[in-house]
Design brief:
The structure is a single chain. With 105 residues, the chain is α+β, with helices and mostly antiparallel strands. It has one domain. The protein is built from four helices and three strands. A three-stranded antiparallel β-sheet has the order 1-2-3. Strand 2 and strand 3 form a beta hairpin. Bound molecules: zinc ion. The site of zinc ion has 7 residues, from helix 4. Zinc ion binds next to helix 4.
């Protein structure tokens, strides 16, 4: 198991969306022309904003990383990686920390 931090703003995610989309779907472009069409639109965006990326993709899953506990996006996430990758936001980690401190008294 690995534990590390990740700092990504929604803008960072929007700017890398086209490249990540390509990595995930390039093999399917022939079979799913709409995936290729979305890639072309993502690549052509100027300026790139999270809102415009969401519009093309039809949801916000490529411009947000949601916390496993509170389901909110946070720029700073603690990543717990084993068989599955868990993202926990800094504020939920704070809550966990307070629980531990209370138990230690
Ligand atoms: Zn959270």
């Amino acid at each position: 198991m690995k534990i590390y931090t990740q700092h990504k703003t929604r803008q960072d995610l929007a700017e890398s969306a086209a490249e990540r989309w390509f990595k995930q779907y390039a093999e399917d472009f022939d079979e799913w022309p709409d995936k290729k069409e979305k890639y072309e639109k993502l690549k052509a965006l100027n300026p790139i904003t999270p809102e415009r990326v969401n519009e093309i993709i039809d949801n916000d899953s490529w411009t947000t990383y949601k916390c496993e506990k509170c389901r909110k996006h946070s720029d700073l996430m603690i990543i717990i990686e084993s068989d599955y990758l868990y993202r926990i936001c800094a504020s939920c980690i704070e809550k966990i920390n307070r629980l531990i401190k209370r138990k230690q008294k």
